[in-house]
C-alpha cells in the first residue's frame, strides 16, 4: 500500500545565507534533524509574530478629526451636510 500524498506539497527553493549562520544552525540540529523543517518552523513563527504585532487598523482607533476629513471628501461641497461637517472640522481643528 502506498503512502498518501501530501495536500500541501513542498516546493524546493534556493536561498543564500551567511556561512556563519549555516554553521550555527548545523550545530543546533542533530544528525537526523532536517534543516528544511527547522527553517519552515522559523518562518511560520515569524509570520505569526508579525500577524500578532500588526493588527489591522480599526476605525475606532482613528481620531475624530481624521474621520471628519475622510467624510468630507465623499460629500458634495454644496450641501448642508458638507457645511455641517466643515463646521465641526474647523471647531475640532481650533481645539
Question: How does this model look, in words?
Answer:
The mean pLDDT is 89. The protein has 4 helices and no strands. The protein has helices at 19-28, 35-53, 64-72, 80-94. It is mainly α and 95 residues long. Helix 3 packs antiparallel against helix 4. The protein has 2 domains: 19-53; 59-94, no CATH class.
Q: What is the count of DSSP helices, taking H or I runs of 4+ residues?
A: 4
Rg, Cα atoms, Å: 27 Å
SSE order, one letter for each helix or strand? HHHH
The largest sheet is: none
What is the domain tally? 2
- Range of helix content: 55-70%
Query: In total, how many beta strands?
Result: 0
Structural class by SSE content: mainly alpha
For the terminal residues, how far apart are their CA atoms?
Answer: 76 Å
* C-alpha geometry: elongated
Low-confidence stretches: none
Average residue pLDDT: 89
What proportion strand? under 5%
Provide a short characterization of the protein structure:
The chain is mostly helical and 95 residues long.
List key phrases describing it:
95 residues; mainly alpha
Please specify the SSE layout and strand pairing.
Layout: H1 19-28, H2 35-53, H3 64-72, H4 80-94
